[in-house]
From TrEMBL:
Protein name per the record: NAD(P)-dependent dehydrogenase (Short-subunit alcohol dehydrogenase family)
This protein's UniProt keywords: NADP, Oxidoreductase
One Pfam family hit: adh_short
Molecular-function annotations in GO: oxidoreductase activity, acting on the CH-OH group of donors, NAD or NADP as acceptor
Coiled-coil zones: none
Keyword tRNA processing: no
Record-stated family: Belongs to the short-chain dehydrogenases/reductases (SDR) family.
Organism of derivation: Mucilaginibacter phyllosphaerae
Domain of life: Bacteria
Keyword match Isomerase: no
């Protein structure tokens, strides 16, 4: 285990999270899959074990402080370090359908729900796990963002995302990008790299069946950023090897 990389992926019981864990596991990396229930986490881990992947399931409701502390304790006691953290778990607002501009009718409760998962809890979990990531020879933190968090692309005269302006979600991803930028600066000079990943519009429960990309392709950006070499970028917003504007 000493020379085997260890990765923790949040929201890994299905969709992009599970596929990311699968692709990392196929490269010989030990993967810890978290989900809101231990049953879902273990089921996902067992599905990878069937393919010879070293996988573990752990309960983590990211908005639960006790769960976050329990995960950090588990990782410390079982592995003693963490090489890769992929902050994959995320939510969209309830009762929102289609591509509309919600700037005029977003209630405070919606902001609280979305930001609590997509930013506040993510930051708290990352801070708890940072001491373990610092023990890695090549720590990597990957934050699952979205092109919808790009102010530059939203502002283009002919923006490809002009019709998609769900304020709470987009603002949470823009804030996540700021966190990526700031955390990368805070960790400058260390062996830890921090990047935001835009997976693309993927056929997941969140992306819907209308999306353009299949799940295996959607996971490729996170996997690539998790395995960056020493000369790889940090503090960047990436999709399929290409840098996106903030």
């Amino acid at each position: 285990m000493k020379n085997q990389k260890i990765a923790l992926i949040t929201g890994a019981n299905r969709g992009l999270g599970l596929e990311t864990a699968k692709q990392l596991g196929e490269k010989g990396i030990t993967v810890i899959l978290t989900a809101r229930s231990i049953e879902a986490a273990n089921k996902a881990a067992d599905s990878l074990k069937e393919h010879g992947i070293d996988a573990y399931g752990v309960k983590l409701e990211v908005t639960d402080a006790n769960d976050r502390k329990a995960v950090a304790k588990y990782m410390e006691e079982k592995f003693g370090r963490l090489d890769i953290l992929i902050n994959n778990a995320g939510v969209t607002p309830n009762n929102r359908e289609g591509f509309t501009n919600t700037s005029l009718d977003t209630e405070p409760e919606e902001f609280e729900y979305v930001f609590n998962t997509n930013l506040f809890s993510l930051v708290s979990l990352t801070n708890l796990l940072l001491p373990l990531i610092r023990k890695s020879d090549a720590g990597r933190i990957v934050n699952l963002s979205s092109i919808l968090g790009s102010l530059t692309i939203h502002s283009l005269a002919e923006s490809p995302i002009a019709s998609a302006k769900t304020l709470s979600y987009d603002a949470s991803k823009a804030a996540l990008n700021i966190y990526t930028n700031h955390l990368a600066f805070a960790l400058a000079g260390t062996n830890i790299k921090v990047n935001s990943a835009h997976p693309g519009w993927v056929k997941t429960e969140l992306g819907t069946a209308a999306a353009e990309m299949e799940i295996p392709d959607g996971a490729k950006t996170s996997v690539a950023l998790a395995l960056l070499g020493e000369d790889g970028p940090t503090g960047r917003f990436i999709h399929m090897g290409q840098e996106l504007p903030w």
